[in-house]
Amino acid sequence: MKRCTNCWTDNPDDAERCKKCGRVFDESWWHNKNYRLYWKAIGIGLVVGSIMAIVGYFLFGASNTFFFGLIPIPFVTGCIATVLSYRMEPDTTNSFINALAAGLIIGCAVVMGIFGFAFFSGDTAPVMMVILIPGLTIWALFGGALGTVINAAIESGKKATITITVLLIASIALIVYGAYQFNVNANYSNGAYMSAYDLDFVDIIQPEADAYLNAPYSTSEERLSNLKNAKVKYERMLNITVGTKPQVDEMIGNSTSSIKKEYALAMGQYLQLKHDYCLEMYTGIQLEINGNTAEAQKHYQNAKALIPKIQSQNDQITAIINKDQSFKNYITEKRDDAKKYSGRHSSENMTFTPS
User: Fold this and answer.
1) Residue 76 pLDDT
2) Which regions span the lipid bilayer (predicted)?
3) Burial letters for 24-60: b for 16+ Cβ neighbours within 10 Å, e otherwise?
């Protein structure tokens, strides 16, 4: 008879593991209970994690929300690997090691995926991305810690099992919600800042462009030079309004309160009006450069007709901001920062220099 040194149960001589606790009788380092990996437990955890990732992708697409939502996956995988491996061998240390292995696998897979995607897209991923391996591994160990508590609860009775299951679900929900809110706030803050920065940049460029456009001239060559300088600046403004749209769209989609949503939508309309104005002016300048003055004047008039609408929309934005003092303080701070930054970088505006 073989007596198990873990639970002291007698087993048949040809038994490979204890019939009660599952302890492997082979004492080599690989089969030692403190180092044994149960690939079935780890595999089930990875499958559940993969399903979570797939569902998240279909819900959110390849967005920031999706990537932040992946944070709970190593936590869940480590928890599952710990619980299932403990069922195969009731040893806390060994089940914890299985969570560690699950985290390492996820970390390596994520880093390899990032570098592989960067390679095939022609980019270079930063070497610092390898820090994700220990980071995700530690996160899986946190899941393993919860799995250890669940194992203890299961052994103590059915009521405790239900309690811990609820705790597990609540933990995952809080992690997902926290990651989502972090992402929302980051995106909103970035959208509010960048849109303010870009629109302040447009406000800096426009007087410079109009100064060229309205400057007195004595020869057609001088007028042409002024038009080309104005064209360069209006083209710059037009490109800014196009480039700012994704920031405003992100702000609209991620606004977490009614006033932020209202502000974001108003900013979107204001940006569209500024875009239309710059487009009309750019088109008119281009036509005048080409000698079609009559058509150019029509576009100048179209742009002029948009000025009251732009002012009215700006007043509406101000009214929205004034509805909430804390929100007003937030937006004012962002606008002040953006104004200072855009002012320091006003030298980026190009002008045409005739040869």
Assistant:
1) 86
2) 37-60, 66-84, 96-120, 126-150, 162-180
3) beeeeeeeebeebbbeebbebbbebbeebeeebeeeb
